[in-house]
Amino acid sequence: MILGGATSEALLDALPHLVWVADPSGRLLYVNQAYADYVGGARELIVGGDCRSHVHPDEAKAARAVLASTFSSLGVLRLELRLRRHDGIYLWHMVRANPVFDEQDALVGYIGTDTDIDEEKRAAAKRSRTLAAIVESSVEGIVSFDLDGRITSFNPGAERLYGWREAEVLGRSIYEVMLPAASQETARAFLGRLHTQPRTEPFESQHRRRDGSEFPAMVSLAAVYDEREQPTGASVICRDVTRAKADEARVRSSLDEKEVLLMEVHHRVKNNMQIVCSLLSLQSHQARDPDTVDILTDMEARVRAIGLAHEKLYQAPDISRIDLAAHVRDIVQGLVHAFSMSRIGRPKVHFDLAETWVGVDTAIPVGLIVNELVTNALKYAFVGRTSGVLSLVLRADGERLYLDVGDDGIGMPPPAERRKGSLGLRLVTTLVRQLGGVLRQSEGGGTHFALTFGARRPRRTLEIRS
């Protein structure tokens, strides 16, 4: 007896799977109630029949061969089959069977289970049909090949791309059909590491058409697996990027031309600003009135600050942005040098400037603000002294920038004594508004102006606080 009595049979009858026991020839010795209900009929009539009698005709011959081979070799059976139900409908089942031996290790039969997998098979078939439809309708070439590089599928997109028909290339090597010598090593290397790298990121590779012409292709490779999750080959998706590369080259050429033109514009603006500076300098040297000289000198410094921004853009690797820290440093050093030559000794300057890249629409107003604040400090903060200290701090906090301009001078005069309608203050006010920033002034051991603004010039209401 293979089964151990009534208790074992009761347990087997409680299972939802079809359970059966067959002798070495395949004759059924036992079926549980689920098996009898599935095939229809009394168990006494089913027992004694062939365990292969309910297999679908399309799988019957193969099933008989597999069963015979398994039984004769005393192996373990794993097989997917369609089994006939009592109403004549065939449903897919996973058949599993293990050999049973007696006390003398002689084979006495097999005990097996049939598990209904029909829904899973139908779902898989639907997915397969959907995938096949996608592959067939794809405009891109999709080619599958085994571990030796022999082509196993070649969709219509690949036929259009390479000029071959699928029937002409099945079983032939991808190295012969579609890959020139320069690209073959990449494919071989990928097939050699399928276990550790089952797919690649898209990359560009040279491919070959039937007529021998080569073209650039954007390629993605992925491993193909069998039911045991073992790689059996790979699938490749190919797209001809000849036109895309030509378009990219035209766009790049156009951008290069525009960049050259824009650099020339910045260069000419800088030169024109230099001419204006020279004219203002000549005029200031001819003027006799000190107030007129101050006005002309201030104007020259403002124009020079604007011109310096265009010079930075002309020299920068990215003509859309400049380093604000370097721009501020150059403005301040130029002002300190000019004033030290004519009015006071050279003040010490402490820079704490973080590298910050901004567009010209931000660099120019910030440069003019720094020009006004530093000029004001050089003129009035160190009256009666031959030295002083200027400090400039630039920091970035996300999209917001922080700029502090300070000195250790005598401080600002009381509001009642300040010059009314000062052009410098009005200019700073206007520029801060353009930046959408906040300007705060503090005193104590000198004067400090703290400017907070956005790197991209957000629209904000101006605030000037003392």
List the helices and strands and how they pair.
Elements: H1 6-13, E1 18-22, E2 28-31, H2 33-39, H3 43-46, H4 57-73, E3 77-84, E4 90-101, E5 107-116, H5 118-137, E6 141-146, E7 151-154, H6 156-162, H7 166-169, H8 174-177, H9 181-192, E8 203-208, E9 214-225, E10 231-240, H10 242-286, H11 290-315, E11 322-323, H12 324-342, E12 348-353, E13 357-358, H13 360-380, E14 389-397, E15 400-407, H14 423-435, E16 438-443, E17 447-454, E18 463-465
Helix pairs in contact: 10-11, 11-12, 11-13, 12-13, 13-14
Name of the CATH class of the largest domain: Alpha Beta
- The CATH topology name of the largest domain reads Heat Shock Protein 90
Main structural class:
alpha+beta
Q: Tell me the Rg in angstroms.
A: 43 Å
- List low-pLDDT spans: 458-466
User: In the CATH hierarchy, what is the superfamily of the largest domain?
Assistant: Histidine kinase-like ATPase, C-terminal domain
**Average pLDDT, all residues:** 83
Distance between the termini: 103 Å
Number of domains: 4
Which shape, going by the Cα principal axes? Answer: elongated
Percent helix:
40-55%
User: For the report, how would you describe the main beta sheet?
Assistant: 6 strands, mixed
Strand content: 25-35%
Count of helices?
14
Q: Tell how many strands the DSSP assignment holds.
A: 18
- Spatial order of the strands forming the largest sheet: 12-14-15-17-16-18
Examine the secondary-structure arrangement and name the CATH architecture of the largest domain: 2-Layer Sandwich
